## 1
Amino acid sequence: METTNTSNARGHILASIREHLAASREHDEKLRVHGSAAAVVPQSNGGKGSPPAAQSNIELFKTNLEAVNGHCVIARTELEIVHALTRIISELKHTQLNPRRIALSDAKGLERLVRLVAVQIDEVAVTPSSAEMFDVDIGITTAQAAIAETGTLVLDSSRERHRLISLVPPVHIAIVEASNIYSTLGEALSLLQSDQEISPIVTFITGPSRTADIELTLAIGVHGPQELYVIIYDGPPLMS
């Protein structure tokens, strides 16, 4: 009798899983064809005029990043990237952090841009050692992709040495090209893999580090950066 009951229970569980998977596939297909409902800008037109316009991937990424306490700036030239970096670091100078040391990944052209920043910094180091990382105030990297529907950055360690730089310093600044912002996680991973084999270490970053493990109270910056700034570069290819 016990074996029969167990078999029946297993059958009900598997049937429920199949039912929900089927519903999920149908829902995913609707999203693929019609676009996510989250990608619509809510606005009231009193029943007149054109329907609400769909957000671009840039706008949707910015909206979702800021919803999880991240900061987002859009730059259309290299000079605007430099101005954005200058403004971010200058503002941080007036906080308790008062950054003095910056660590950079080995992304092409990144050091050249940071050297143009008009803020006094004691030290700028490219891919410092693990021990040195704990004395760094700001980590600056690029990102290989971003996901609009969640405001998530995708960092592939096979293309850039940035893992510790993005995770250890109290502030992380990431530069991502607008053309590398994809609608969904699946699209981002598919396009990354179509270019070359994905690294065994891919880091997903959605907003500043946060945890609620301690007495169920949300704490920011416990396991990583307490501030995340993303500069979206929507311009011609960056120079090396």
## 2
Amino acid sequence: MTDLVFTPPDLGTVLSLTGLPGGSNKIHDRSPYGNQATITGATWKRLDTGLWYLSLDGADDYVDCGNSPKFDITSAVTVEAWMNSSDIDKLWQTVQSKGTDQTYWLSGYGDSGYWQFSIKNAGGTRVYVLTGSVLSQDAWHHLVGTYDGAYVRIYVDGASGGTPIAQTGPIETNTTSLYIGQRGDNLFRFEGGLALIRIYNRALSALEIQNHFNQEKRLFGV
């Protein structure tokens, strides 16, 4: 294994959980805002390439990223993560959720094996976009959801994963923490591995997402 060197976070990054384990229950955020996250239950594991990731058991493991004002994103957002689910069709298992009402939410879609990214606007309207296919179990996938003020999109492994869904208006805000690995009401916990979790206050372009996938896929043996 070799030491890994990460480039500085991209423009608009408000959360970047890509650092090494700190030897405790904390993850240090590499964004400019230092949104230190707290681990409950999940354990650190390391890939052969040297990359550390979090292993969650799907029962009582999650990460609480707090309720920084920087997470109250209203105009545009991107949620990005590498994930390896050991139960791909587990009910609504969550990669990321902001608030009890999931104002922006990246998760499985029911128990279908499809995955979804949803946005709830300030008027109370929620829309979601689904991956175009069921993802492979026990395999690493690069999963990204974006909202640009006009459309909600999802990307899988560097490519568009489903038909964009129209949505307008600012994203609803709330006073609940941003969670990794569970929904805001402590339900629908993720089972498997999560790594390189990032959130941006802008919509990454398709080219940026493809570039991230191409730059990072070697770390996951993809």
## 3
Amino acid sequence: MPRILTIASQKGGVGKTTTALNLGYTLARLGHRILLVDAEPQGGMAIASNLRKRTDKGLVQLICGDVTSSDVVAEAKNCSLSVIGSGVLEPEDAEFIESAARSGELGDTIARIAVPFDYVLLDAPAGIGGIVSALLTASDGVILMMRCRTLLLKSLPIFLKLVRQIRSEKNLRLSLEGALVTMWDPRNPLEKDLFEELTATVPDALFFRTVIPYDDRFEEASIKAVPMYLLPDSRDASRPYLELAMEIKERELLRGIGEADDEQVDGLF
């Protein structure tokens, strides 16, 4: 059975798309069959992966029945990674995605195309709108992206309440995989203080041990539309995503043998 994970955040600019691409590529390097789903109407993943070189159609056309999954799921070279775009070509297409989220068609489509894969990573839009709710309803888990910024931390409880609501009312299997700190700059004293304050108030297990540091090369990788690993001399910089992939696998194994308790998630709410 595929494991469907939503990569989400209350605020934008925290590296959701970068994490989806680099984590997906890393899991594929480890031998898993991976599907990245661009569920952001603005099409960030399509840009980050250069998907539009292959096709500009995606979820919109698939839900409408204009194409089949084989027409719009693009396979990457030299690894078991595939990507499907949002298919948003016109402003009204964005409204269609919202409508499909409310009706359940978006979640049903994701569940259908997920079948051949081991992991499906959903690149969610920022916030707590209808699309995000639909993605969480279709998911097994959520990776909560965050930066150590005061406004972001203050808005965090709203998103966490949404996760809890979806789990209690619509999707009992939904779990909080962990909170991932990104764009981390340990030289910034404000970030350091906020991080220490946050980690002191919630259980350590709710945060991934892995932290994604700030690195200008991520911007370079974005410009070239490749995962960090494929940039020359950047494999060390891509290592945190290998550590994240291994930590996700570790947490899955612990849950499988009963050593990880989902009730820990309640400590964040």
